[in-house]
Each structure stands twice: as structure tokens, then as C-alpha cells.
Specification:
Blueprint lengths: L1 E6 L4 E8 L1 H16 L14 H8 L2 H24 L8 E6 L6 E8 L13 E3 L7 H12 L4 E4 L9 E10 L7 E9 L9 H5 L7 E9 L2 E16 L5 H7 L5 H33 L9 H21 L4 H7 L4 H28 L6 H15 L3 H10 L3 H20 L1 E3 L22
Parallel strand pairs: 5-11
Antiparallel strand pairs: 1-2, 2-4, 3-4, 6-10, 7-8, 7-10, 9-10
């Protein structure tokens, strides 16, 4: 078999595939073997029908040849795709131009291929991720939560600050409503908790016992109420002294230093893990933003959408649910679900195209050795031999797809190491802080 390619407009390629007579003879024999197991001819058992008898039964050699052509064209096409290293994204339009009756079989395949997009600015990407840094104030706040269990309340005569405990009488009356007013006496409120209504915490700070506060706020379902607060007593929490004796009596640690060091290590591991989990997705999304949605082929988006819908159905089936129940539980229509899946699919395709562009821009094409290494790893995971997987990739036309996946893995690693990471405040993050192993022992 011999295949040549011609580039057409609109990301289309024309494949011209020539199949010589020995290969056609093998295809005809394969078709005959298949048909002999399917047809019933008097005097012969299925699978034992001689080839000449079968051809006579079908209507002559041309009928058997036509059957062989129909059966074998998908395989010839897949091999041609692998040999020419094109990357189809849709089903081909096949047209037989010669050899239907005899001789060399020639057919053309017009197929849409994955576009090559360009990206600009990938070397200057700034990606926002959670900060892996743990501050002393955050550690102190965590320690104070332990100390609060032994806190003593002392009444104070000073302006209220966040964290104070205020005793108050509360009167709540809905505006333009027939609902009865609500009255609570000696209601204990922790300033800063936000459990009364919006605005109270900001207004109450700086006030003193004996004063009154009136504020309007929402009470749900669009209703508005007036809150009248009569401040009666202000108390502050006096925390126990943080020393080794208190730590030994009230915690699992043996000293204040050990407590502080362990809490810091726990918080740091949690922060680094959160940053690491966010890192890859955030980087890929930032890279994909360099690819305009206008260049994304609909064929790729449709395939990705269908695959996501299929995966959703499979997951629901495992949970013994159906799509109708899922839509009811998530309070959405089928059109809304498809719209969400399609938006996710567009993002996935943009990421794919961007990574492929990065491979070209930074010359990250994998070597044959790298491809073979990944192929061996994949084959081992699939519990098949590397040779079998290699043959399967060629027979299914996925040689280019596999090689591209290896290239994209290289591109993803390159990108992770070459972008600038910043925290939500825009402060640049030391990349070395992101390399800590989130699974390492706390005491390491």
C-alpha cells in the first residue's frame, strides 16, 4: 500500500491511497473466510465453503471483490493515516477512483485535520494560585483556637473590638409585614461572627455598653427588617498563657515550641498541597486563553462534548442513577447541561491546541526513545506487550495521537517550570516553595 497527501483549504487534507494486488488478494481471502461462516449453502458446512463456490453464490468474483473493498477500506485508511502522520478530527469522505473491478485499488479520502494554531506570550504568563506561604499570624490564630477553650471572660468598660462578647437585647421588626416582632433578651453575640445581619459587625465596633444600634437588614426571601440592639455588657476573652505547662495539660504536645512547629508544618503541608493541586489546571487555562475560540473546530468540540456526555452517563449508571434524575437533582434542563458540557469541551480543545502549539514553539517534539518509553509504560498498565500496543496504534490510525500525547506531557512540564506564579494579592511566589512534597511526613 502507498499513500500520498495533498493539503487543501480549511484544514482539509486529501489522501490518495493505492493498494496493490497482493494486498487486495489478502483482503479478498479475508472477506471470503468471513462470508463462508455467514452464508448457508446446501452441501457445505458454514466456514467450509470453497472460495469458488462462494463466489458463484454471491454472483461472481466482482461481488466478492466489492465485499472485500467495503471491509478493508477502513483498515487501509487507518494504515495510511499512520504512515503519513496526518491528524484527522472527523470521518473521511471516501471516493474510489480505480480498481473496483480489478488491478490496483485507488481511493481518495478527503478529511478534516487538526489545525495548527499560533500562540504569543506563553513565556510571560502570570498564573494566580493559592499562596503556599504560612504566616506567623496564621499560626498564632490557630494556636489561639486551642487557647480559647480555656479562656476567661472579663467584663470591660471600653469601646468594642472584634472578638468581644456582647450581651444585648434584640428587637427585630419586619418592614411592611404582618409578622409579629421578635424580641430576645440577654442575647450573647460574638463581634465579627456575622450572625445577626449584614453591617452589624462594622457598626458595633467602637461602641460601648449602654448604647443602642439600629440597622436595616435582610431576613430572607427579599424581606427587610429593622434590628434594634441595646448593648448591655461587653466582655473580652482572656486567653491562658502559652507555656509548656499549659500545653502539656491541654494538648497532645509536650512544649509550646513543639506545638507551634507542628501546627506550622501541618498548615504548610496543607497550603503547598492546595497550591500544587491548583497549579496544573491554572497553568493550562492560562495557556489556553492564548488560543482564540474562533479557531476551535466544531468537529473537535462536538466529539469532546459527546465523550463528556458518555462519561457522565457511565458514572450515573455506576451510581444507579439516570440522566433525568441527575437533571432534577442539579436543577437544570438538558439544554443547560449540554451548554455546560460544550463550554467545558471548548476549553479542553483550546488547551489541546495550545499545548500542541507550545510543542512547536519550543521544539518539544519527543524523541523516538521517549515515545518508546511511554509506550512501554502504557502497555504495562494495559497488561499487553509493547509490540501489540504498537501494532494496535497503527491499525487504528492512532500513531500520531499517541505521539502527540507524549509531546503534550513534555509541553505541560515545560510550562509548569516556565510561568510566573503569583498569589491572589499579586505577590510573586518562589517556585521552590511549590516543589515540596505534600505527602511528606509532618515531622520530616
Amino acid at each position: 500500500m502507498h499513500a500520498t497527501t495533498t493539503t487543501l483549504e480549511n484544514n482539509h487534507v486529501k489522501l490518495v491511497i493505492e493498494v496493490d494486488e497482493p494486498e487486495m488478494a489478502e483482503a479478498i481471502d479475508a472477506a471470503a473466510a468471513k462470508l463462508s461462516k455467514q452464508v448457508s449453502i446446501k452441501g457445505f458446512r458454514k466456514g467450509k465453503v470453497p472460495k469458488n463456490v462462494l463466489m458463484a453464490h454471491l454472483g461472481g468474483p466482482s461481488a466478492l471483490r466489492n465485499e472485500a473493498i467495503r471491509d478493508s477500506i477502513p483498515d487501509f485508511y487507518a494504515h495510511a493515516v499512520s504512515d503519513t502522520l496526518i491528524d484527522p478530527i472527523a470521518q473521511p469522505d471516501i471516493n474510489i477512483t480505480a480498481g473496483e473491478e480489478e488491478g490496483v485499488l485507488v481511493f481518495e479520502a478527503d478529511v478534516e485535520v487538526r489545525p495548527e494554531v499560533s500562540i504569543a506570550g506563553h513565556g510571560d504568563l502570570r498564573v494566580t494560585i493559592p499562596s503556599p506561604v504560612v504566616t506567623d499570624d496564621e499560626v498564632n490564630a490557630q494556636i489561639d483556637r486551642f487557647r480559647e477553650t480555656d479562656a476567661v471572660l472579663n467584663e470591660v468598660d471600653r469601646p468594642i473590638v472584634t472578638g468581644d462578647l456582647v450581651s444585648m437585647d434584640v428587637h427585630v421588626e419586619q418592614v411592611a409585614s404582618e409578622e409579629d416582632p421578635l424580641d430576645m433578651s440577654d442575647f450573647m453575640y460574638t463581634v465579627g461572627s456575622g450572625t445577626i445581619t449584614e453591617g452589624v459587625d462594622e457598626l458595633i465596633v467602637g461602641m460601648k455598653a449602654g448604647e443602642e444600634l439600629k440597622v436595616n437588614g435582610n431576613v430572607g426571601q427579599g424581606a427587610v427588617a429593622t434590628y434594634e440592639l441595646s448593648l448591655k455588657k461587653v466582655q473580652e476573652r482572656e486567653l491562658p498563657e502559652l507555656n509548656d505547662e499549659w500545653v502539656q495539660e491541654n494538648t497532645e504536645w509536650q512544649s509550646a515550641d513543639e506545638m507551634r512547629d507542628t501546627i506550622f508544618a501541618q498548615m504548610r503541608r496543607m497550603r503547598v498541597g492546595e497550591a500544587q493541586r491548583t497549579q496544573r489546571d491554572s497553568v493550562l487555562v492560562a495557556l489556553s486563553d492564548l488560543v482564540s475560540a474562533d479557531v476551535v473546530p466544531d468537529a473537535l468540540v462536538q466529539d469532546e462534548t459527546n465523550e463528556r456526555l458518555h462519561d457522565l452517563g457511565h458514572r450515573l449508571e455506576q451510581q444507579k442513577l439516570n440522566l433525568e434524575t441527575f437533571l432534577q437533582v442539579t436543577n437544570q434542563s438538558s439544554d443547560q447541561l449540554l451548554e455546560t458540557l460544550r463550554a467545558d469541551a471548548v476549553r479542553a480543545v483550546r488547551i489541546d491546541l495550545a499545548l500542541r502549539a507550545l510543542v512547536r514553539e519550543e521544539n518539544l517534539e519527543p524523541t523516538d526513545e521517549e515515545v518508546d518509553e511511554e509506550l512501554a509504560t502504557t502497555a504495562e498498565a494495559m497488561k499487553v506487550s509493547a509490540d501489540r500496543l504498537r501494532t494496535n496504534l497503527r491499525d487504528t490510525g492512532r500513531v500520531v495521537t499517541f505521539r502527540a500525547e507524549v509531546a503534550k506531557m513534555k509541553a505541560s512540564r515545560w510550562l509548569t517550570d516556565h510561568v510566573t506564579y503569583v498569589d491572589p494579592e499579586g505577590i510573586e511566589i518562589d517556585p521552590n516553595l511549590l516543589k515540596a512534597d505534600e505527602s511528606e511526613d509532618i515531622d520530616a
